[in-house]
Amino acid sequence: MTTYILRRLLVSLPVIFGILVAVFVITRVLPGDPCHALLGEKATAAACAAFNTRYGFDQPIPVQFVRYLGQVLSGDLGESIRFGIPVTQLLLERLPTTIELGLISLTIASVAGILLGISSATRRNSKRDVATMIFANLGVSIPVFVLGLVFAYLFAIVLKGTPIALPPAGRYTAGVIPDEIAVAWGLGGLGGPLRVLLDFISNMAIPNAILTLRPDLLVDALSHLILPSIALATIPMAVIARVTRSSLLDVLGTDYIRTARAKGLSAREVVSGHALRNALLPVVTVIGLSLGGLLSGAVLTETIFNFAGVGRTISEAITARDYVVVQGFTVVVSVGYVVVNLLVDISYAYLDPRVRMEG
Known about the structure:
Layout: H1 2-29, H2 34-39, H3 45-55, H4 61-73, H5 87-122, H6 127-141, H7 144-158, H8 181-184, H9 192-202, H10 205-211, H11 215-252, H12 255-262, H13 267-295, H14 299-304, H15 310-319, H16 323-351
Helix pairs in contact: 1-16, 5-6, 5-9, 5-11, 5-13, 5-16, 6-11, 7-11, 10-11, 11-13, 13-16, 15-16
């Protein structure tokens, strides 16, 4: 197993390198430049010359890339042109928001999608099966920005003043200020990796509220996460439901399932004890790919619900020609994809003992 993991990591290095090269080149051949995007009307020839010299944009692209690659290998992702702060600090602020939103959305999508798929497969061609598939097709077809705006209008305007009204945007209600975990625990002067970890956790609304013992903050954070999480979970939930149904139907038609039924096992025992585990392999693959996509940032969802996460930050950085932020965030997202795919492959050995992770 260890040899398999190491081999997969080594194979992934060229992929990450290729992505870095592609993003580096594309950002520089696109029309426009950071100087005019940042300075606007003040972007005179002299100002842009000084700007390009300061950030090294006056050098040939290969020279720029070699210098940037050296920074990345040393753990330095550079400094944002737009904000003037290190990209690692920006990641520390924005990535927790995307991770929190993505994990909650994927949990909703996975649980609901698998349950709907099981219900549909065990009652094939019934009214419930047809209704589930219609719902799944609608979930895949409706764009997330349409669904998000409908949710915001319905729960924030139409149902305003009712017990089920929900906030349409933001992570907290105005006036509710979250405590930093390090300060709350009296660790404000702490440094090093532990301080970085505490700062990272404090930028997640739910863990911060729990660890600082703020039930009011927890309720407020959850209420702000409901609409974006459901909107973001709709498409993967529909895909997971369809894949679960298809995979489970294939397994239910095999010989060993017929044998289990002939032995007198109930339908619940046949599905939960024999069929479901083997049917989950393609479902796990879909869940892993969905998680990678969610961690890369849901641009539309974060924009509609005013969440300052990875997707929205990359979108704004592309518009502002903030090359350093685009490159830094792309490296982190690429590594995230590699790790998620590796975890999915390893989970195969657990779900199906016939799968062997050989070195």
